[in-house]
Queue: 2 jobs
Job 1
Amino acid sequence: MAAFTAVRAAVSFTQRFVRVSRDCSVCPLYRLNVCTGAAVDGFSAPNRRLRTSIGVCQSADSSSPEEDQRVVNVVFIDRSGQRIPVKARVGDNALHLAHKHGIELEGACEASLACSTCHVYVSSEHYEKLPEPEEREDDMLDMAPMLQENSRLSCQIILTPELDGMELTLPKVTRNFYVDGHVPKPH
Amino acid sequence: IWGSHICRVRGLSSSSGPRVCIVGGGPAGFYTAQQLLKARQDAAVDIYERLPVPFGLVRFGVAPDHPEVKNVINTFTQTAQHERCSFHGNVNVGKDVTIDELRQAYHAVVLSYGAEGNRSMGIPGEDLPGVFSAKDFVGWYNGLPSNKELHPDLSFETAVILGQGNVALDVARILLAPVEMLKETDITQNALEALAGSKVRRVLIVGRRGPLQIACTIKELREMVNLPNTRADMLPADFEGIAEALKDLPRPRKRLTELMMKAVKEGGDDKAEKCWGLRFFRSPVEVLAGADEKRAAGIRLALNKLEGSGESVRAEVTGQLEDVDCGLIISSIGYKSIPIDPAVPFDPRRAIVPNEMGRVQDTAGLYCSGWVKRGPTGVIATTMNDSFDTARVLIQDMEAGKLDLSVNKPGAQAITALLQTRGVRMVLFSQWEKINAEEEKRGKSLGKAREKLLDVDEMLCRAK
């Protein structure tokens, strides 16, 4: 824990860095067996493609003005209502972004449109800006508990500059959170 | 930092963190374990599974042509390989070791053993050759060792499936799919060969109630509609009044119903060799034997009408009957949990372990997750959320002092020793990986994703 406290003090440009989960199992680096362990200490991403928020800011130091415009700010709102702002890049996949930041989105089928565990609600003004879901996504969404007008599967959301400021809210899918006694339909 | 952290935690035998035992190595077991490991950095979790191989219905239930659904295996593998988790296969809880022995060795025990039994139709003729439970039929094409001798006779033109859930639709699709669609999957070779020689051309999928009550999801229905070389054969009469009801339906039900209506209207290619149809308002009352009285040759269905409305619509008999000639009858009306150990309360009417939010009734330190807790419905995601719920409740109990963590529990050490004295050969996860490698190797030579080992003894042999 001491290491994290030190990091928290040093890393002030992302106040939410402390939110990064210590659970390796959600990290794509670990899953792909490319984790060197250095990611936590030095916060450097060994693989340039899998960029953490620290990585983005480091590259921003030496970046050109065009690169700055490629940052997309996204806010995740987790199941307890806590806001987690993250800095992402154009082209990032929202589900992978969530995993990088320890957000509790499962992604059981690994973005293959065979489950609904990455279900999120998209802030309404940004929902309009997303491309229409393909039929397969709609079919999977139909199985998600607490489906709303602004529901999407986050594994299908690719960030564009116009999505800057988008808020992705995690549905309260478990019985512990149901306030209206709603029980999800079996199938 | 992680390197040194791992070294510090390695001495688990002297650790005084909570030790949790999970009974059942399917999705419920793995998702419960995952959540526990994440929530408590000092928790050690052991998973016990009856078969030498893990993953439960993800391996034996999910259809071979749905490989993406099986991607969850990657997550489960991560969990099993976690340093604070260990998998013990080939251990029959209730027979090789009792629940009480597990409760003595662990701070908490979670029952996640699912539903291995089958709801019977309860009608005469149900035991005639030619009648199978969907559970057994699916187990047969998915390589479940206890179903390897099923040998279903596929030489009849018509098959009737009772039930209209996703399992029923999976069975229909596997019966009618072109062999090309299946030959590179992990379907067993003997099932593939049997299906290649199948004479089944017509599959009827029968439900008690109406189109608005159908239990399958749209993905599976769409796969039937799009199945090559097949056409839909529906009864327009079954759909009276449905078009009018569409506008008031919630989105998932509306889209599903619209797809069905489309299938009724368009039907599909008349030249198609094979056909499938949904039949509504019909309940099985008798399996009819052939002239030789030796096997099933047809099924007698009672026609129903619907009473009530909304979620509580019921089917009521009208007295009318209908006979359908068929040589293959598959009952897909639900799986069923069975009691595992006399020490565990069991509700025989609902066929679940009675519980309150995952805490087993009147039994401190005993929990349940998955189908044995809620009943055998839902997709993997449903079980995932449910397992996360149970894990959260367990953690709450730990933190509220309801579980006495001050007592040191021996965990796997004690159970492993016990099993050894009883001559039980445990299969560790690294040994499953040898079985896994062998299955992939055999599959490769057949041009398939894998060729599953069908025999427990062979699995144990490969695990050495």
Job 2
Amino acid sequence: MDVVNQLQRQFIDYSASLHREGFLDDQFTQLQKLQDDNSPDFVVEVASLFFEDCEKLINNMARALEQQQGVDFKQVDASVHQLKGSSSSIGAMRVKDVCIAFRSFCEAQNREGCLRCLQQVTHEYSLLKNKLQTLFRLQQQILAAGGSIPVVE
Amino acid sequence: MDTLEQNPVHKDDYNPDLLEPSPIQEEYAPVVFAQDIVSHVVSIDMLSGQEDSKNVLCARKSGKGVLTAPFRLLKTNRLGVILTFAVYKRDLPLNATPTERIQATDGYLGGVFDIESLVEKLLQQLASKQTILVNVLDTTNQSYPISMYGLNASNDGLEHVSLLNFGDPFRKHEMRCRFKQKPPWPWLGITTSIGILVIALLVGHIFHATVNRIAKVEDDCHKMMELKKQAEAADVAKSQFLATVSHEIRTPMNGVLGMLHMLMDTDLDVTQLDYVRTAQASGKALVALINEVLDQAKIESGKLELEEVQFDLRAILDDVLSLFSGKSQDKGVELAVYISDQVPQMLIGDPGRFRQIIINLMGNSIKFTEKGHILVTVHLVEEVIDSIEVETESSSENTLSGFPVADRRQSWKGFRTFSQEGFIHPFSHSINLIVSVEDTGEGIPLEAQSRVFTPFMQVGPSISRTHGGTGIGLSISKCLVNLMKGEIGFASIPKIGSTFTFTAIFTSGSSSSKKYKSQQINKMSNSVSSEFYGMRALVMDPRPVRAKVSKYQIRRLGIHVEVVSQWKQGLSSICRGSNAINMVIVEQEVWDKYLNNSTLFFDTLEKIDYGTPPKVFLLSNSISSSGANISTGVCNMTVIPKPLRSSMLAAALQRTMGVGNKGNPCNGQLNSLSLRNLLLGRKILIVDDNNVNLKVAAGAMKKYGADVVSATRGIEAIELLTPPHQFDACFMDIQMPEMDGFEATRRIRDMEHNINNRIHHGELSVEAYNNVSNWHVSILAMTADVIQATREECLRCGMDGYVSKPFEAEQLYREVSRFFQ
């Protein structure tokens, strides 16, 4: 029991810190609520999809921005738009915020700015991936120890 | 000379006894013939007297009649004159010399005139009614007039002088006449004229005064007109000032607050967030201050009007309670509200202003109270009046928190409502409330108590520095109370506390519900009370006042309440009682004193053999203390922080007892439940090119019980939505690479239109199309960017609405409920 409690407390604290630091927002909580007995791994599935999507989009953007002769800002913008959409659906707040800034650079056709933003997005994405993986690991541990995942309001 | 000449008689000389023969003279003039009446003058020598002789000689010389001076006649002694004519022997020419005349004289003729009788006889003929005094005078010698007739005149009065001519040129005579009696004062004339004069003076004076007064009044009137214009101008200026200040100050303030709000939504670190929050708090305080001052100005210019709206008094007090609960918990002051059952559920009046008054009073209480309690009570005036008669001795310990308070009865001592004469029996629909706010704070110093309701007055200059505020709150409250036709008063004992009481008149709200707009009725209380109705609760609280408050709040949920002051008593009644008790509510004080270290209580509870053991709730004063208590290891006790509110109690009950709505009846949960109702079993198509979005949206829909099909391309959507199909609705993403949402929707609509036409014309059979002849599937746009897809654009291409990505429960409910009922 103690182990479970400890793990649960760890989970709650970690979740709270993620929210506090802005990695996740309310949408992520909503996602967690969607998870139930019918779809027990809902959140993990969505997160995996998101990571795949992210990597694909980031690669697209990197390739487009590397073009020495004329960057196709429209394409970059489209990718950023996609990324923004996904990140808001999952509740990845910091990623979304970077995307917003990214878009304005695209509109201004500012290559330097775009590159910087791309760097930032990559950074945020890796951070988030790590954090979420830690979170999911904790969840697994709790389930393995026989406890239930606490709902964080 | 002849000796046969007549002589007039000298007046002095006549006395027959004294007569003597005349002396030897050259001439004699003896009277030869006389009338009978003057027969005594016969043979008297007229030349013997001096006057007479002069007279005779003069007559002889002049040939004219000559009058003597008046003298006393012989014998009669009356005043008279003698007129002497000379008789000549022959006619003498007019220019005859005196010598010739003397030569020709034959004799003399004399007439004796008795002046008195003459005048009297004349006067008798001539005199009028008035008695006239006549003086006849011989004025030959001007300085010595000889009086011939009449008394010696007194020269006063008016005299009429007329000349008499006897025919003698050498003598002058005059007659002076005057009235005997002085003419009387013409009294009538005098009086009349004086009267007229006086009247004229008076009239003149009145006239003058009137004119003056008119002038003065006109003058004053002009001045007043001027002043009135100035006053009106000032009033207009004031209203303009109000309007301008109202607008001008509030606009930038709202701008500031709005911007701060938006700033809060952006990416901020912890310090920045803190700063923004502080700025917001200051801004809100400033707006509140401005509103207060403007209220005061509005009241002064009489422009404040009260609304007439239906409202729930208990809901208002719940709001106010939540407003102050944080602060009171921080200070450790217990906050409680009690509303009598006789106060009706709905009232008609101005809820905002009523709230304002209560917030003012409670704000003051919170400011100045560091310990003890603040208790707000609402009763009907009728209830309180009845209790006035009964002199209940209230011990000072018998209060909510045990601290003494200022007696509330003192606070309404002077109210007209309670005096015999003043008590107006209310109309059938009018509700006369009496509200008291009692606190155990510092109290108001005695010398300041008279100034309490004066605007801008604070107890000391340091108050605004330590506590803030402008000091207008109470004066505004007083004006508002007056507008509500009530009275406000207070009783305050320094270092003990203050109790403020006010009355207000409302009308009962439930009867005429059509006429007035109704504020949103708190659905919560209605829906929740039905769930707990009939349950039984036991309250353990040694203080009756506090227990009454708890009982009131619990009974609002429809729960039957029993109060005990001793925990052992409670325990026995739980175990013994025939009616099952569903919950036990323990006051913190009881817990701290007796039950904290005792397991007896919970063990006994668990051992109850009938039904489920009652749930235990702890009413605690502050959140922090609640944490410590859970460590007893008792997991079936829930902490409810005070101030006790029905809503919180209901929430806690629901959580522990699992009764009623699954979620707390806050809006979100309400909507999710209703969404579930709407979407259960519906077949929904979700179209989005982004996998993540698609999965999330599909997951949300599945949660509500819908049957979800996903698609990633517009073309797929068109295929799937070609009639006949089973879909009830479609959520379509707008931005998709190959074919965007608008285009897809347009094509779908065309397709539907086409098929509908063909069905109507009979080209296609309606049975083949599931007997539906007007295909129109509801399509909702999903958009991450509201600017991108306005409502008009969506509607233009045939969509039925739009929701944002990711889904937001309330908006989703709003949109979806339009199609699914």
